[in-house]
Amino acid sequence: MHRYLLTIFFLCLLGNGIGAFEDPKKFRDIDPKYIDLNIIDPEQKVGFTVGDTITRQINITIKKPFYLVEESLPIVGYEKRYRGQLLGMSLVESNHTKKATKEGTTYDISLTYQIFTNNVVAKPAFITADYYRVVNPADPDNVFKYRIPALTVAVSPIAVFGDIKVEDDMSGYRGPFFIDSTVILQKMRYAITALVLSLVVLLYIYSKYSWVPKLNKWFSHTYRKFKKIPASQANIELFIKALHASFDKTINQTLFMDNKHFLYQQNPSFRKIDSEIDEFFTLSRDVFFEQKKAHDLSKTYAWLKLFSLHCRMCERKLIVDTSDLKKLSS
């Protein structure tokens, strides 16, 4: 008994399946007054190539007493054929919504096709006409059909066949294949940022105008104070006194010729300008005490500014070799 029931059940399923794949062209056309159709096709009709997608938006209203047989809508994976031959146009996405009103039922259908055909020259490609079935529930044996118009586009080759100049093949519809450059650009940004920071650090270290935290002390203030003041006897004396005060504050005691070793112990960079320090003390003694010879005010003041700059660099421990003096003085 169960065997016979199962046999009847499978026969019913087979009958429904066969009915679903019936040729819709054999049904009669429905009166157009029961149908409102609006199709939005892509504006581009040429320049497609293999792999591109085409989306059609179909808005169709079936007026009462008829209803759409939803099984007649296109099925994802179906490949379009013409006279039994594959057209290379496959439905890859299908979505629809429906809204019932007093007058009928409105369907918003979105169909996305992908192109799987190409040629050495441009050729037409077709989204063939679809036939949607409609039925009157009061008379289910009489099925009608409604034809959705076909869409024709032009498929271009990936590359031009034969030899041709690049400037003769500048179609705006067929662009190049792009490689995702997000990762490369991100690495380039990191590299450029690291390079800029490295350059800033190097300029900070080697520039004679660099500022070093906690080392920008006495000679820096002295240099900034006197570098733009005009040369005069009074300014020279003030400059020398300020330099003496900077030396004294550096070693926390008065600096003389015979206790320079305290300065060198405090900051070995000053050893690189030992001869300049001796010359400074000689100048100081001559200006304030001996006054044996007349000094050129401009040259003396320029030398004091240069000496102050060297002391400023030594204070920051930027002079590691005597050759650095020439670089900093230039």
Automatic annotation (TrEMBL):
Record bears the keyword Transmembrane helix: yes
Superkingdom, natural source: Bacteria
Parts of the chain that traverse the membrane: 188-207
Keyword entries, A-Z: Membrane, Transmembrane, Transmembrane helix
Name of the molecule in the record: MxaA protein
Source organism per UniProt: Methylophilales bacterium HTCC2181
Lineage: Bacteria, Pseudomonadati, Pseudomonadota, Betaproteobacteria, Nitrosomonadales
